Amino acid sequence: MKFGMFNMGTGVSDPSALRTIAEAAESSGLESLWCGEHVVLPSPRVAPSPADPQHHFLHPSVVLTYLAACTQTIKLGTGIVLIAQRNPLILAKEFASADVLSNGRIILGIGSGYLQAEFDAIGAPFRERGRRTDEAIDVMRALWNEERPSFEGAFWQFSGIDAHPRPTTPGGVPIHIGGHSEAALRRAAQRGQGWYGWMQDPEQTADYVRRLSELSERHERPAELGDLEITITPPARLTSEAVEQYAAAGAHRLVSLAAPSERSMLHAVDHLASLAD
User: Fold this and answer.
1) DSSP string, 141-198
2) In whole angstroms, what is the distance from residue 249 CA to residue 245 CA?
3) What is the DSSP track for 22-36?
4) CATH of the domain at 160
5) Which end of the chain has a smaller Cβ tally under 10 Å, C or N?
6) Structure confidence by residue, pLDDT tens digits, 2-60
7) What is d(CA 35, CA 243) in angstroms, rounded to the nearest whole number?
8) Residue 117 to residues 46, 54, 83, 113: CA-CA distances in angstroms?
9) Which domain holds residue 107?
């Protein structure tokens, strides 16, 4: 089992604290560090907003690039970037740059989003978020992989352009799909190198893994994507027994959600390291 830590730049934004946590995580043998994204939050807070409007959210590519400069080997991921709110050409450039500066350690977790107030403020169409997500994935991979990138879609069209440097990771930055809807699961099965499950217990994880396997078979998952990597953020503090249950359910990586403070996250690093021993 691989172990990771969430809340890097999400709640904790002090650069000294982030460096301390990142260095401790790497030296303790953790596999990855993760952050999330919300550009804006409703004020006052209303459901289904995940946090108060004053909650800190550093920009994902910025915080991951900072963490890359603080570390040498640990992987750096987003759980998740709200891709339907973004121009995918700019997003592709951001994460290709982060991939190059981290020597290929970036995992791009993406999701279509769910806060209409955030979409409205940004000027992104909420009702088209699923279709825009699918197309944006194809746009980024075209820019990362094609010798002469071109694309003709419903939302984006381009030709006669190029973008360098390309990601150092073969095939481009690995894309992991977040979300629990049928559309998100189908997207992961068809288009993702991985699936990110948020706040899932072992029983729920097993059910999602089964459904993802069925969808991969039904939709003839492309061979070049490889096996689907399953990443889970558990809803409770991990125990050795729970780790075994997640492994049996089909999870490959567990990303712990600690309270967003330097002290709590350092305690969580030590706890995860003890589980990995």
Assistant:
1) HHHHH-SS--EE-SS-EE-S----SPPSSTTSS-EEEE--SHHHHHHHHHH-SEEEEE
2) 6
3) HHHHHHTT--EEEE-
4) 3.20.20.30
5) C
6) 999 999 999 899 999 999 999 999 999 999 999 999 999 999 999 999 999 999 999 99
7) 22
8) 10, 16, 16, 11
9) 2-276
Long-range contacts of 259-265 (CB under 8 A, 24+ apart): 260/7, 260/10, 260/11, 260/12, 260/56, 261/11, 261/12, 262/12, 262/14, 262/17, 262/20, 262/21, 265/5, 265/7, 265/12, 265/21
Would you state the structure tokens that stand for residue 51, as one six-digit string? 């946090």
Tokens 């190198």 locate to: 193
Residue keyed to tokens 């006052």: 44
By residue count, the chain amounts to 277
- Spell out a b/e string for 201-238, using b for 16 or more CB atoms within 10 Å of the CB, else e: bbeebbebbebbeebbeeeebeeebeebbbbbbbeeeb
Between the alpha carbon of residue 130 and those of residues 66, 82, 111, 112, 134, the distances in Å are: 31, 11, 9, 6, 7
Structure tokens at 165: 């440097």
Query: Would you say 262 and 17 are in contact if contact means Cβ atoms under 8 Å apart?
Result: yes
Count of domains for the chain: 1
Phi, psi of 149 (to 5 degrees): -60, 135
Tokens for 177, please give them.
């799909």
d(CA 164, CA 96): 8
Quote the DSSP letter at residue 228.
Answer: P
- Answer whether 10's CB lies under 8 Å from 50's CB: no
